[in-house]
Amino acid sequence: MAQTQASPVDQGTDSRKVAIGLWAVFIAYFAPYFFLNGINIAQPNMVEEFKGMALFAWLIALPALGSAVAALLFGKLSDMYGRRAILLISLGLFLVGAILSIISTSMNFAIVARVVLALGQGAIAPMCF
């Protein structure tokens, strides 16, 4: 049986698809951490404005717990339903959490928004790896 070889045009197209895929994964992994860093920089001012120093520990602990749970849960869901769909869902969840964090008006609302944000961010990491 004779093997068919890919033409140089097909090889260029394949390498271009791989490069675009790698850049998409890089951006999907980098952008949430970039936005999360911006929110972390603004966090002390938010706590001061909301007079929520009594709830500051919850603002740290609950998102960390949510991120850990999301990594496990979404990792299992991606095995069941596919990586692409779960990555898009986690990016959407992160986007909703970022918007909620921006429009938060109280410390309790900020904590809930950060948990939603952490659920999305925690799910993005295993999907990109």
Strand count, sense and barrel status of the largest sheet are: none
How large is the radius of gyration?
19 Å
Task: Tally the helices.
Answer: 4
How many β-strands, per DSSP?
Answer: 0
Counting copies of identical and different chains, the oligomeric state is single chain
Poorly predicted residue ranges: none
Structural class: mainly alpha
SSE order: HHHH
Fraction in helix: over 70%
Mean pLDDT: 88
From the N-terminal CA to the C-terminal CA, the straight-line distance is 38 Å
Q: How many domain units?
A: 1
Query: So what's the overall shape?
Result: elongated
Question: What fraction strand?
Answer: under 5%
List the helices and strands and how they pair.
Elements: H1 8-50, H2 56-81, H3 83-102, H4 107-128
Helix pairs in contact: 1-3, 1-4, 2-3, 2-4, 3-4
General description of the model:
It is a single chain. This protein is mainly α. It starts with 7 loop residues before the first helix and ends with a helix. The protein has helices at 8-50, 56-81, 83-102, 107-128. It has one domain (32-128). The longest helix is centred in the N-terminal third of the chain and has 43 residues, at 8-50.
Label this structure with key terms.
mainly alpha, 86% helix, 4 helices, 129 residues
What would a concise description of this structure say?
It is built from four helices and no strands.
